[in-house]
């Protein structure tokens, strides 16, 4: 009855708009600096239940009107980060096949969710959603307050004048609606996952490629200023994907030149200028080794933990580190793939306490653990099947074979 009344009247109860902020200290950071803490926002349970009911109604309208652009993969059902990275890699590979220069920028938006302009958001909601949603969402965003709790101490209440509510159910979709009209430019591929934004363009001339990209950035700059969205130029990355030694001309945003690098981290995956996946695989190897050292007292030869529990720990903590994005980096050359295989060989021998003369293939068979190459083939088959049924047209196009095949190396793990 309360939920129905809220929907009918268009008034979100004030008691459900109180946020309790818990500060989590970041390891290794100084205690006296506010940036050394990660704020976790806790909202009332009743508020989240009502938000979920409202979200269900909003999604139906949003999908019916196709409000969210196809290039936005964040916070959408059946849309994953791997598919968005695959779109980016597809553009890069096409550029490498044609001996072109792919000039790309990966933007870092400052406090994207915390700086959403309420008046601008409500203006867009009023123009794209039915009027019934405008009233309830206006009440939902207004008069929000928060307090900070640290141990037994609690701060005073302070008003929230901007941003979408952190820890809420509606926060992600509201940010997506706020950025739905991101300007597009001809010849420039746009890939967004929430606030992670990438722009790519290709041309045989490195100067012309950057010129096209700069025109798109100039257009984006006006849109960012209009809707009060800040981008950190120093943390953004400009990278040239090419098989040649020359780099594309520098580009700038808001009068600041974007730093040029040879590798970039996008959605948890490291992309190098030739798309060899070497940097990504080496990073994952180091991450696995670091986590294994922390778990050695449980997984080592002297551990009294049962073999089944050791394997369970490996499958739930260590294995997901290197299987993430295997649909893409699985196309790397054999020498790079073997880097991960050697790590798994060592860990499985430690887990099973196998003597040195036992073959690694036998260890895998006894533990019923697939080799890395088998994991690549398995994930590739499932991934191709998922893409063939994907609701997003841009993701579905990833299964279409490319016409230009100059390079001999595999570009996708489901390539023949």
From TrEMBL:
CDD domains in UniProt: RT_nLTR_like (cd01650)
Entries under InterPro entries matching the protein: DNA/RNA_pol_sf, RdDP_mobile_element, RT_dom
Residue ranges occupied by any Reverse transcriptase domain in the UniProt entry: 5-271
Source species, domain of life: Eukaryota
Pfam family, one: RVT_1
Annotated GO biological process: DNA biosynthetic process
The protein's name: Reverse transcriptase domain-containing protein
Species whose genome carries this gene: Mythimna separata (Oriental armyworm)
